[in-house]
Design goal:
This protein is mostly beta strands. It is built from four helices and 21 strands.
Length: 259
């Protein structure tokens, strides 16, 4: 099942995407959704929102061997974690804002998972039942600020720096999925989740032994090699097999009016 959130007029509605059409649904997103609409919208006409509103985004760095190599970083012995604020989350077709404080802003295509129920100290074997489903993520990064700061918080946390969507797919196996990014239609990243250093369920267990995960929280799983810069006027796409395409345009930060 492909779960979406979209605008119907001014109302935020939960829906299910089937055969290119968006059906309004009723019930709990975390279990028991049912289609209630007989006249669905073509997906092209639906104003899709981020498919979930997380309390936090927990991100994993350097989880593909080739990405660690391109950055000249050693293969980590444990997952490297950082956080992105909920205010960085945007949806499909929303604009990524290039901050004036940043000289190089990079795309990072990633598979992300959405937490289904409250989870703490979950075993790797039990992890699948705590996962609602999977979505695409672009872990946008101010690369020059990441290098300057020596840690990742500022570089990862600007508003609009966490596009997710277009759907939450509840019925795929995350262990062997292609992950691709395209910039202005040109493929820049192409890999597969079987290349992970730390597989999805191991990551979930590891993170849940550090912090309590809440329904709707998002975990991103790292990006493959091929990262590169984006600039205003570009369009970036993240495609994960079985989920769909997350597309966003890049715009310049608007100058603030003088006091």
């Amino acid at each position: 099942m492909k779960i979406v959130r979209f605008l119907r007029g001014k109302e935020t509605v939960t829906g299910i995407l089937e055969d290119g059409r968006v059906f309004t649904a009723t019930g709990d997103i975390y279990g028991g959704l049912k289609i209630v609409e007989k006249n669905p919208l073509p997906v092209e006409e639906a104003a899709l929102l981020p498919p979930v509103v997380p309390s936090k985004v927990v991100a994993v760095g350097l989880n593909y061997r080739d990405h660690a190599e391109e950055l000249g970083s050693p293969i980590p012995s444990e997952p490297i974690l950082f956080m992105k604020p909920s205010t960085s989350v945007i949806g499909p077709e929303d604009s990524i804002v290039h901050p004036s404080a940043c000289n190089r802003m990079d795309y990072e295509a990633e598979l992300a998972l959405v937490v289904k129920e409250k989870a703490y100290r979950v075993s790797e074997e039990d992890a699948p039942r705590f996962i609602l489903g999977y979505t695409c993520c672009n872990d946008v990064t101010a690369r020059d600020l990441q290098t300057k700061d020596g840690q990742w918080t500022r570089a990862k946390s600007f508003d609009t720096f966490c596009p997710i969507g277009p759907v939450i797919e509840t019925e795929i196996d995350p262990l062997e999925l292609s992950v691709v990014s395209r910039l202005n239609g040109e493929t820049r990243q192409s890999s597969n989740t079987r290349q992970f250093i730390f597989p999805v369920f191991e990551l979930f267990s590891f993170i849940s032994h550090i912090m309590t995960l809440l329904p709707g929280d998002v975990i991103t799983t790292g990006t493959p090699s091929g990262i590169g810069a984006m600039k205003p006027g570009d369009t970036v796409e993240v495609e994960v097999e079985g989920i769909g395409v997350l597309r966003n345009a890049i715009v310049a930060e608007r100058a603030r009016p003088s006091d």
